[in-house]
Amino acid sequence: MRIGKIISVDNGPKRNVEVRIARDVLFSEISEPAGPIKVMDVTAIDVVEERVGGTSLLHLYLQTSNGPRIRFYTGETQLDIALLLDELEASLVDKPRTWSKAEPSSGANAAPPRRSL
Asked: CATH top-level class for 6-103?
């Protein structure tokens, strides 16, 4: 899995991976599954925090009406994901968003708490 990083914020966020956000199509070179995503197919946005060793990763998923949930982007900082959410909001007007925090679970299969954004 590749992780995107912000490399500059001059004149808007620039990343070390290509991310294109248009009114009709979205693209991230690190999305899984790969390929362009039609904006009209996106029904919701989910951010899921995951702890891997001592590192926290943030995965931004797009839920689609015609198929699987797509892992659009993975980053290490909340700032990177927040900036990406701001960029997506222009194309994905009024789509529900959730952010699941990575917290120690009380059981092996406990789900992380979710909150709407």
From this structure: mainly beta
